[in-house]
Amino acid sequence: MLKSYSFPKYPYCRSADQDAAVSNTHPVVIIGAGPIGLAAAVDFSIKGIPVVVLDDNNTVSVGSRAVCYAKRFLDISDRLGVGQRLIDKGVTWNVGKVFFEDKQVYGFDMRPEKHHRRPGFINLQQYYLEQYYVERLAEFPSASMRWKNKLIAISQEQDLVSLTVETPEGPYQIKAQYVVACDGANSNTRALCGLESKGEVFEDRFLIADIIMQDKSFPPERWFWFNPPFHNGSSTLLHRQPDNLWRIDFDLGWDADPEVEKRPENIIPRVKAFLGDDIEFELEWSSVYTFCCRRMQNFRDKRIFFAGDAAHQVSPFGARGANSGIEDIDNLVWKIQLALEGNATVKLLDSYSEERVLAADENILNSTRSTDFITPKNRANKVMRDAVLGLAKEFSFARPLVNSGRLSLPPVLKNCSHISPDLQHFNATIEPGSPCTDAPVLVNDDEVFLLSQLGEHFQCLVFIDDLETLNSTEIDQLQALSELAQPIQPYIITQEVTATTLPASINLLIDHRGLIAQRLDSNDRCCYLLRPDQIVAGRSRAFNFKLITQMQHRALGEPTDV
């Protein structure tokens, strides 16, 4: 057990379902209380949907495991009420450095533009992340977190899913309108459904060594070595974590014996060769891992949805596991909410798989390319890679070719059936299918951030240069957006404060730095439609009520000629 962290032991508690004469039906059952399952449970709870979470363990994950969380992960965690705790505990970093043998050849900065609420990345051990999400979930009386509850059978009827659950006191049965499987790479749910996850298994072994080290000479940056002089392997990666904990990943090669390599008497000399004999450290935790890049063919099986590693796996290079998993949840939960309310089309539910398969394929492609560069599969590829690294020392043109793990960025849902394509030209990095950007705005003279002001529904951002030019028809149409069957919350964004009074249903945001307008390439009356997950569903150079509603119909999988 780790020395720097006191692992909570969550009690098994008997539920009312275990004493029910007839199986009770729940709106949503989530399998797995890892980061993705817990995020899903919190998201449903925020939306007022009772949720049951089943986990066969009674504590959080051992070891650092997932450690790098990107800005998009933090933005979603902010919406779920956990983001600030992650920031407060985590180690913020933006800079990465790449070394070839004993020389630095490349560096990068993950910071987005200035004036974002969250940094490019933080490092935080997975057990802290899970603990904070467990504690957040406990704030919702309608959420039932069931430890030592293992799914052992599952079947689907026309409108329900039947589950059999094993506990220390014997099995019981429940039903669910929807099930979200977040039970990891070796998903028991997936196996019980007779489904497969297919892809490429990489013949590489890596050693994780978590060490406690007081030395401050290593800054909070991501350092990566190719052909490190201190280690007889292809690569080494260093990350700093909270509690003076440092994670070192050593490439071992496929022929390494995992049991031998995990022995402290073999790890400690390897770490000393890396750090130097004069630096004191204590071995905290270690593991030898292999990995694969694979996914399920479809992330939806009728009323069962798969998310995170249960649906797709990538190599650890690029920090795409947990980061892509929470994007799955962000995409899925609002769609299931509408289905529970009777307002979701079959197309909308299917769009979860369409969009997240696209994202998974992009992540797998980038992850595979990183792995092939880091661990070349033949001599010719290694010669080519080392030539690139050698050139990168002297020539800037070669540096973009260096691939030590292209770090996670949210994929753009281009050409997806529920995203409205541009009808006019925009010169902005944000586009339909992208998460909305962030920047400071003023609300009642207080500086806040745009994303923190967005709610749980559709939103329409309308840019107005001069509020006094708003006419009564435009105001009526903005109000009408909030009165639709699926409400669209209107936001007016302007750069100057005036005495104009707006109806209470229209939010006013002052873009006092002009950054929102700049980043979205807006003009007067330009509008952006955002989905509940803050993805841009469509945009227009001119405010048009009918066009906005058509964009929403498309986002919901409904006919657009309404």
Structural class: alpha/beta
Fraction in helix = 25-40%
Low-confidence stretches: none
- Rg result: 25 Å
- What's the rounded overall pLDDT mean? 92
Give the N-terminus to C-terminus distance in angstroms.
60 Å
Instruction: Note the beta-strand portion.
Output: 25-35%
Count of helix runs: 14
The global form is globular
Structural description of this entry:
The chain contains 14 helices and 26 strands. The protein is α/β, with parallel strands linked by helices and 562 residues long. α8 runs antiparallel to α9 (346-374). The chain starts with 24 loop residues before the first strand and ends in a 7-residue tail after the last helix.
Question: In brief, what are we looking at here?
Answer:
The protein is α/β, with parallel strands linked by helices. It is 28% helix and 27% strand. Strands 1, 2, 8, 9, 10, 11, 17 and 18 form an eight-stranded mixed sheet that branches. Strands 6-5-13-14-15-12-16-19 form an eight-stranded mixed sheet. Strands 24-23-22-25-26 form a five-stranded mixed sheet, covered by helices on one side.
Please give a handful of descriptors for the protein shown.
8-stranded mixed β-sheet, 14 helices, alpha/beta, single chain, globular, 562 residues, 26 strands
